[in-house]
């Protein structure tokens, strides 16, 4: 399957036939944003800030117990200067203790007002070979949050794809730390179609935006997601974003 992005529209190709996928519209999903890392290279943040699809940016900060994204500090500062609501994300590895990973986040991400909760990227792609059980993953994420919560209190944002969600989180909510859900479902409406079950939907991984050379991940905020929607609206008001 090849996904093409052009002129603000996405199309999914199945063999020789093309099935159109219209990205979530600003009318239905008025709060849209991106997530970035060093893979996006040098970003023109003022240009991004002029676009209605970039009302927030979640920026990669850390991975595992010691990796720090080489563009994080620059992206973090320039995003702030451009007036974009920011959040930081951490790639959670299954082969390092949760507390070690939380210390890496604490040492890297500035504690600042007017930012989104810390996001935690939890997936098999790009991870180590270990496949944790539900209880093992829940224990390490709980340890991660116990350490992180002293500096960054409140609910984190857990980023997962639908398969990972169904394998680990679905039906096991009681054993995992309370969290907002950031769901990856590329070029199709999530199976959890009632968006009260998720807070953020990553709907494309090859979007095109003025200010970024090459592809970028595109996201929308669930309109009925009261917690994050209220928070983002408050931050936008404080930062005087139109």
TrEMBL record:
Q: Entry's PROSITE patterns?
A: GLYCOSYL_HYDROL_F25_1, GLYCOSYL_HYDROL_F25_2
Q: In Gene Ontology terms, what is a biological process of this protein?
A: cell wall macromolecule catabolic process
Catalytic function, reaction form: Hydrolysis of (1->4)-beta-linkages between N-acetylmuramic acid and N-acetyl-D-glucosamine residues in a peptidoglycan and between N-acetyl-D-glucosamine residues in chitodextrins
Among CDD domains, the record links this protein to: GH25_muramidase_1
* UniProt GO MF annotations: lysozyme activity
Q: Which Gene3D superfamilies match?
A: Glycosidases
Please give the family membership noted in the entry: Belongs to the glycosyl hydrolase 25 family.
- SUPFAM superfamilies (alphabetical): (Trans)glycosidases (SSF51445)
Q: Which UniProt keywords apply?
A: Glycosidase, Hydrolase
Give the EC number(s) listed in the UniProt record: 3.2.1.17
Name of the protein described by the UniProt record: Lysozyme
Keyword field contains Chloroplast? no
The protein's organism comes out as Ciceribacter selenitireducens ATCC BAA-1503
InterPro entries linked? GH, Glyco_hydro_25, Glyco_hydro_25_AS, Glyco_hydro_fam25_subgr
| Recorded superkingdom | Bacteria
